[in-house]
Design a protein that fits this description.
By secondary structure, this protein is α+β, with helices and mostly antiparallel strands. It is built from 28 helices and 29 strands.
């Protein structure tokens, strides 16, 4: 971090402070004896047995000495009051922060940039002062990329201290001052910078008294980053081909500190007032509406001043400088909703505007707490690392997550737009209005937003079957990841920024959503809604922990007369990793069900997590639901409270199916007779089970094969019924598993047999649904998956049909129906020429439809030309050719191509340092890249290569992702050992039966 000349020359002595070893556990109440900083401890002046007589002179001396001693003690107490930042933090909880994790002090004292010892060793800030209000004035120059800023923070003192520690990252602080509430300056004796913890230290000449307010002022300089976090520069190309720049922010989780000095922790909420200087050709946006615009004297600049914000966390602050167009509407509750986009894309913003206003009104009603801001902006950002960011009142989006054109955008992409909008709007309540106290409870933000996104989208688009889609979009991916030892609890301790980044994953988002769905399944939507309303009302504009949510729900449960130990139940799902496998047997009407932690990999790897109950091991409170052959539409529930259970059903029951609708976050394994009975029922009449139950049976049986629990033949026997399946959810689940097997056996003779078998399942449906882009939303989703499956299986008609469409599109600019484009483009490149690939590259570079650009990225990865594949990968190193936000997409899609697995891995390995610099060492994107390029590996040799490369590489927040990738490779090796022989034998026997037809292979 660059320091100013003034800072480097600052050599004043340390303030006269007494060093202490511990921090206070709790704040003392006002009016306590220690309030003033003095405490008198009385003790006897005479020892027992002594003659208590003395002369008047001696008595006076004794009294005088006594008073001197008392005063000395009082002074010592006053100046050694716990809380001085010079103390080394010992790991005790911060006041009011029960979730603050224990941190071991570094082995060597931290050293500031000027060589002096930095007096604070913890990555977390001390709790001595907290901000009340920020006044920020900032001037970003989009031409020079230079940023100047001035900031005033009103502070209040929680614990007496002679130092202020604040966050700052790559900021050049040139001036600083501190005043008390009367405007009297307080001398700052020392200013230190410690880049590893991104902290600034201000040593003061006097004590800041508890309960008093102060004003800290700082002037600083920085640059607009060439990254996807902090305050950074982005650009787009307008309709005239001219490059236009915008400046935008992305602060979650810990990047506000790189834009301005701040107390960058979620519990340190404050109000924000912002003023931004800009050139006249631009306009500016902030969390709040603009208040005034004034010309700057002796300058061409304008100064925009915004209304003061509500209390919020620093990571939710956002501001943008751009020259966009907008569309707006007023909601039923008088909130002004606007969508901003480049002028050549604004016609694609109308769908987002309609959906956003509809969902915002619904959430107002659902949560029972009115949206508190006067406006809600949604803005498309050309370069954006995440899908979107829920900044309060100014939500930023990747272009593909906001833009929709009915003539070009597929149903899948349209659904993606609606879901992301519903997710980010849910955050305006969960995350913004009530914020987790610390990142350990990130799931309170992301889990609830992920749960609500399906509800919100379902209200806006009622024909989309969003409740059923919850299974394949949330439940199944969460179960897949959480079956690894390298998973983590939903609520997990994190300290530094790298650890925080690592938990923005499937567990926090999708498992979080899944356990809320499970909770809803046994308490009901009404009780859940009332509990959420109470939780939001009690903690609005503040912070909360997981226990606060359980407390609110328990209160509602108690009032309903159906009191449940919500905390006791849910703690088993949030405080330990993993989930149970419920092993079931049915014999003469007697059911036995036992629970044990389900893990897919048999490798003897040390578990990095601990069970919730160290005595019982991994155990859960499981809401065990079931239906039977006697009563297939009447659900029964049985609680497994950390135990196994036995109960009776009717003796003539032929089959029993557990986890009805797969609302519970667990898997079910049946004995041999149980699976045979269920498979027989599916083959006889698959509609006996709901589509959700059929999907859950498919997901469970294929996953149990993966774990080596049952034979591959069982899953394949069950899959035969798919010839009659017409619903999207079961087919999506089945194709995902079947083609995963195809990838696993790519180098084995069974690969061709597997494709032949899948084709026998797909062929009847391929003929049924055809190439007309018609039907309901769900039917369109199914069509695109079935067509692509047919192409992958080598269906000659499907390949020729796709090539015909592709050729017409290339030569005559023929418009391909939106839901056929993915299949047509990918097939055209896979079976096409270099010129076909070049055409797609041209479209990627010239299209103004984000969803179309996304399809081009996927299609180009399908090439079978090694040279084109390598060139495509090399393009990811040039941000002019491939935007940084799209690098992950390219690497992931290329890695899905059997011919691209090794090139993608070599590419990442060869250019690791450059890719790491591109995304930043602290970015969660690096973890996603590791998983994308290594997870397809299936051999011990590949495992050794990956382990060897990363042995001495610091992957930062990608450490957990690396562990998950390595475990996945081991799982693939295990899969071959358990299943390859059985799979091959079953396929030979099944495909040799009379009447079986196979497609012409590639």
């Amino acid at each position: 971090m660059a320091e100013s000349t003034r800072l480097s020359e600052l050599t004043k002595a340390d303030p006269p402070l007494t060093n202490y070893n511990t921090l206070k556990d709790e704040e003392e109440p006002q009016g306590s004896p220690n309030e003033s900083g003095f405490m008198v401890n009385k003790r006897a002046m005479y020892e027992p047995g002594a003659v208590m007589v003395c002369s008047q002179k001696r008595a006076c001396c004794v009294v005088t000495l006594g008073f001197i001693a008392i005063i000395a003690v009082a002074l010592i107490v006053a100046f050694t009051k716990p809380g001085c930042p010079e103390a080394t933090y010992t790991g005790e909880p911060m006041p009011g922060l029960s979730s603050h994790p224990t941190v071991s002090p570094p082995s060597t004292p931290p050293t500031a940039t000027n060589g002096e010892e930095f007096p604070w060793t913890d990555v977390r800030l001390p709790f001595h002062v907290r901000p009340l209000h920020y006044d920020i004035r900032i001037h970003p120059n989009l031409t020079t990329r230079h940023v100047q800023g001035e900031m005033t923070i009103k502070l209040t003192t929680i614990e007496e201290t002679t130092a202020i520690i604040i966050h700052g990252n790559e900021l050049n602080v040139s001036q600083y001052s501190l005043e008390n509430k009367y405007g009297k300056p307080i001398e700052i004796l020392k200013f230190l910078v410690y880049p590893p913890h991104q902290q600034l230290y201000l040593g003061l000449s006097e004590i800041l008294r508890r309960g008093s307010n102060y004003t800290l002022k700082m002037s600083f300089e920085t640059t607009l980053k060439e990254a996807l976090e902090g305050f950074y520069l982005s650009s787009y190309v307008d309709s005239d081909g001219e490059k236009r720049y915008i400046a935008t922010t992305h602060f979650e989780p810990t990047s506000a500190r790189s834009a301005f000095p701040c107390f960058d922790e979620p519990h340190l909420k404050a109000k924000f007032h912002l003023s931004i200087y800009r050139d006249p050709q631009y306009f500016t946006l902030f969390n709040m509406p603009k208040q005034t615009t004034k010309p700057v004297e002796d300058s061409h600049l304008l100064l925009d001043e915004f209304q003061e914000s509500v209390e919020m966390s620093t990571y939710l602050v956002a501001f943008v400088v751009c020259d966009y167009a907008r569309v707006s509407v007023l909601t039923k509750h008088n909130v002004n909703v606007s969508v901003y986009a480049p002028p050549n894309m604004i016609s694609q913003a109308k769908y987002a505007l309609r959906i956003a206003s509809h969902i915002l009104d619904f959430y107002d009603m659902f949560f029972g707490v009115s949206y508190p801001l006067p406006k809600q902006d949604l803005i498309a950002i050309p370069d954006f690392g995440a899908g979107a960011m829920e900044n309060w009142g100014l939500i930023t989006y990747r272009e593909t997550a906001l833009m929709f054109d009915k003539n070009h955008t597929s149903s899948r992409a349209q659904q993606g737009v609606a879901v992301v909008i519903a997710h980010e709007l849910a955050h305006q309540w969960f995350g913004n209005l009530v914020t987790m106290s610390w990142w350990s409870d990130l799931w309170l933000n992301e889990g609830f937003a992920s749960f609500m996104e399906n509800i919100g989208t379902g209200v806006a688009e009622p024909g989309w079957a969003m409740q059923e889609q919850f299974l394949v979009e949330k439940m199944h991916p969460a179960l897949e990841l959480d079956a690894l030892l390298a998973s983590h609890p939903i609520s997990t301790p994190v300290t530094d920024p790298a650890q925080i980044e690592s938990i923005f994953d499937t567990i926090s988002y999708k498992k979080g959503a899944s356990i809320i769905s499970m909770l809803e399944s046994f308490i009901g939507r009404n009780m859940l809604q009332e509990g959420l309303r109470l939780y939001l009302d009690l903690h609005r504009y503040g912070n909360a922990a997981t226990d606060d949510l359980w407390k609110a729900l328990s209160e509602i449960s108690k009032k309903s007369g159906n009191e449940l130990d919500i905390k006791g139940i849910m703690d088993t799902w949030t405080l330990q990793a993993g989930f149970p496998l419920i092993s079931v047997s049915l014999q003469d009407g007697h059911v036995t069900a036992s629970q044990s932690r389900f893990l897919v990999c048999e490798e003897n790897v040390t578990d990095p997590n601990e069970p919730f109950n160290t005595t019982l091991g991994y155990r859960w409170h499981v809401p065990l639901t079931y239906v039977t052959s006697d009563s297939p539409h009447n659900q029964t529930m049985y609680w497994m409270n950390l135990t196994d259970v036995e109960f009776d059903v009717a003796k003539d029951v032929k089959w029993i199916k557990f986890n009805v609708g797969q609302r519970g976050f667990y898997r079910v394994g049946y004995d041999t007779a149980g699976w045979e009975a269920i498979i027989h029922a599916l083959l006889t009449d698959h509609n006996t089970f709901s589509p959700a139950d059929r999907a859950s049976l498919i997901d469970d049986v294929f996953t149990l094969v993966k774990a080596g629990t049952i034979s591959a033949a069982v899953a394949l026997d069950l899959s035969v019924y798919l010839k009659e399946e017409t619903k999207y959810i079961p087919w999506h689940t089945a194709l995902s598993h079947l083609f995963q097997w195809v990838q696993l056996i790519f180098n084995y003779p069974a690969h061709t047999l597997m494709l032949d078998y899948i084709h026998t399942l797909v062929q009847p449906h391929y003929e049924r649904i055809g190439w007309n882009d018609t039907g309901t939303h769900i039917e369109r989703l199914l069509r695109s998956e079935v067509l692509w499956a047919a192409v992958q299986c080598g269906n000659t008609h499907a390949i020729q049909e796709a090539q015909k469409w592709f050729s017409a599109w290339r030569s005559n600019s023929y418009t391909i129906p939106p839901n056929l484009r993915s299949v047509v483009y990918s097939t055209g490149v896979r079976y096409g020429t270099e010129e076909d690939w070049r055409h797609c590259w041209h479209v990627y570079n010239t299209s103004s439809v984000p969803s179309e650009k996304g399809l081009m990225l996927q299609a180009m990865a399908q090439t079978r030309d090694p040279w084109l594949m390598q060139q495509y990968l090399e393009y990811t190193l040039d941000d002019v050719k491939i935007r940084p936000q799209d690098v992950m997409t390219v690497l992931k899609e290329v890695s899905k191509n059997p011919g691209g697995i090794l090139p993608a891995w070599r590419m990442v390995r060869q250019h690791w340092q450059k890719i790491s610099r591109l995304f930043g060492h602290g970015s969660f994107t690096m973890g996603a890249i590791i998983k994308a390029v290594t997870s397809p590996f299936t051999s011990s040799f590949d495992l050794g290569e990956v382990e060897s490369f990363f042995k001495d590489v610091d992957v930062g927040p990608g450490e957990r992702a690396l562990a998950q990738a390595l475990e996945t490779i081991r799982l693939h090796i295990q899969w071959h050992q358990h299943n390859l022989e059985d799979l091959t034998q079953w396929l030979h026997q099944h495909l040799s039966r009379p009447g079986m037809q196979t497609p012409a292979q590639e």
